[in-house]
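Re: the request from the purification team.
They wanted to know what the chain is likely to look like in 3D before they choose a buffer screen. I agreed to run a prediction and write the result into the notebook, where they can find it.
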Amino acid sequence: MSRQKKKSTGWGCANIPISVIILILGGGYWWFTHKVNIDTSQLFSKIPKIATPVVNSTPAKFSIPTSSPSVNLPSKNEQASAKTITPRKIPIAPTAWEKKAIRGIYLSRYQITNNADEQTIRERVRYYHSQGINTIIHGVWGNGCTMYNSQVMQQTLGYKSCPNEFQDQWLDWLIDEAHKQGMQVHAYFEKGIKIDKNSPIYDLAVSRQWIVPGVDKTYAGIDHYVLDVEVPEVANLFRNVLVEFVQKYPKIDAVQWDDYLGYYAELPGKVDRTAKLTTFIQQMITAMKQANPSVSFDICHHNPYWAKRYFAADWQKWKVDRVFIQDYNDANFKEELNYAKNYAGIAITDKQLNRLKELVDNREIKGILVFPLSGQPEETASSIKSLVQNKN
């Protein structure tokens, strides 16, 4: 009887089905990653990566390195102490014309008639500023009446102003714009104490005996009549108008009176009114200063000898703030110029602009005023600018 071979009962790998092996490996992997809680990505991240060059068809942007290994960077303290250096502007030296303290032009009281509006007035101020003018001497009184609404005029004479058309705020606009431009405004009391037959107060003045006898023929072509400041009503009118003005316009820089503040020597009777005129003006200035001490009381008059001799105007005793010598006569120009050196400046007309270079170059002349006899102040200002530019 033959013997049968016995089957092996061992656990060799050859005897295990492949499906069972896969199942065991998958379960083990699951247990390894979930139960032990090991992040395989962390394991692989610790393996050094080998950089592989990649060809890029788009050119890279070129950047300048901000530092170099060979440069020693400043410490934080040094950086904190470092300051930004800004280029310093070199100031432009002022011209001889710009060095003049007062570079003024006269504007007649008629410049604001026909209801000149705010825009017109402000543009006019800016124009004069662009022409190198820093002071506007503008008429506010003339021929016996104001170019603003005045309660003093209303109470004394029965009407509030000259019969010209103007907007009530015209001077406020002018002063405001001038100050914005760094300019000054001087109120010009044109004609001073003189009137002509066209004055709205002429008939009243005659009827009240406010006029000194005779006709003032200082200037050819027009007859003037001089109000008598020795009459209390006349003196009060001028004093009250001036006080009212500097209170109504507290920001005005100055008031100016000219050679019409005086009595012509050739008036009949040869009466010396010098002392009386001096007293009147001193009282007027005192009242103005009490009302508004910041306002300068200026005059533009003849030299002291001429003014006293021919106009009873001993202005050296008036205690005014500033004096400008009126030099409208070419025949005496040099003589008047010598006086002007001792005061605030000189006044000429647009007919004397040929003298401008001489005046600008003269360091002893502190200020220059120009009166446009032509009645074209804008053209005069343009001419002044052209002349001073050509000089430079």
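For the purification team: DSSP finds 13 helices and eleven strands in the chain.
Please add any questions underneath this entry.
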